[in-house]
Amino acid sequence: MRFSPSSSGRCLLGKEIREKMLDEFYTLFHEIENSLSLINFFLPYIPIPANRRRDAARIKLKEILSETVRSRKRYNQVEEDALQNLIDSKYKDGRSISEDEVTGLMIGLIFAGEHTNSLSSAWTGSYLLNDAKCLMTAIEEQKKIIKKFGRRIDYHVLLEMYTLDRCIKEALRLHPTAPMLLRKVHKHFTVWTKEGHEYEIPAGHTIVSPTVLNHYIPYIYKDPEVYDPERFGPGREEDKVGGKFSYTSFSGGRHACPGEAYGYMQMKVIWSYLLRNYELKLLSPFPKEEWRKFALKPQGKVMVSYKIRQLA
Ligand code: HEM
């Protein structure tokens, strides 16, 4: 399973790149993505081949983006896309942002928005296709929605997809794309655990909150190893049991993901379309996690077979 951006490419990168060099752009982006390993997270500049390819790809990406920026400025061309917003944005002191910063922010945005979404969609699909009961419940929901709204999918229709929402949320509980969240401690503070232990956290330290462990705490999540989307349903709402940080696939606090609602929309568009139009079967075994990568992606290829169909 591989999800690649297309129309989102125009909204983000602009029509020039979307029309002429989207493949090249994403091949370069994937070089950067491929270098993202746990080792690199702690030692980002070690001279290994993956880092050299990453650095060469970044230079090329900057050339492509800078050329687009210059061409727009040269012809006074203004477009409606995220790239234009970055070009036009200014610091508080009136300074424009540099081409290098535009490139860095763009790579950051693609990573934050596209990479996370494609991984989460792949995990959601793997769970759905591996669990006949959940798959049937998700298909039944689509049938009911088609009966109520016809075949159109828009914002309001997506909001009615509660089951699919929970299927995605549960896949992300078991496989959060960011396995740990890091924060720099600005002010000393004390933590008391449920068991009554006390920990002093000094200013200047970096603390790690391991989402990948927190989501398996058994007093919060019943049978945490089990894929059970209904644990988020009415009457259970297990993600509320341990307070507001029980579920942190989209992080929490000041730096919580601003793209969460949009991310759910995108994943629901993908999976409602697939469920409505294809009969899918998982051919490969259920994927293991690729632990060497920072974002928890499925190991190897997730293979599915498909037959075209239309849900009535
Ligand atoms: C399934 C989809 C997504 C997942 C799982 C996800 C996850 C996350 C997580 C865990 C963080 C916080 C990292 C931290 O606390 O250190 C984060 C931050 C962020 N996300 Fe997302 N995200 C998703 C989709 C998106 C989308 C679609 C966008 C934009 C369109 C986006 C934009 C951002 C940005 C800009 C930040 C940085 C926020 C800050 O540092 O203040 N994300 N995301």
Automatic annotation (TrEMBL):
Protein name: Cytochrome P450
PROSITE patterns documented for this protein: CYTOCHROME_P450 (PS00086)
Keywords assigned: Heme, Iron, Metal-binding, Monooxygenase, Oxidoreductase
PANTHER family: 24-HYDROXYCHOLESTEROL 7-ALPHA-HYDROXYLASE (PTHR24304:SF2), CYTOCHROME P450 FAMILY 7 (PTHR24304)
UniProt xrefs under Gene3D superfamilies: Cytochrome P450
Record-linked InterPro entries: CYP450_sterol_14alpha_dmase, Cyt_P450, Cyt_P450_CS, Cyt_P450_E_grp-IV, Cyt_P450_sf
Any Pfam family hit: p450
Claim: Cell inner membrane is one of the keywords in the record: no
Similarity-based family: Belongs to the cytochrome P450 family.
Protein's UniProt keywords contain Heme: yes
Binding site for heme: 257
GO molecular function annotation: heme binding; iron ion binding; monooxygenase activity; oxidoreductase activity, acting on paired donors, with incorporation or reduction of molecular oxygen
Species annotation: Brachypodium distachyon (Purple false brome)
Cofactor(s) demanded: heme
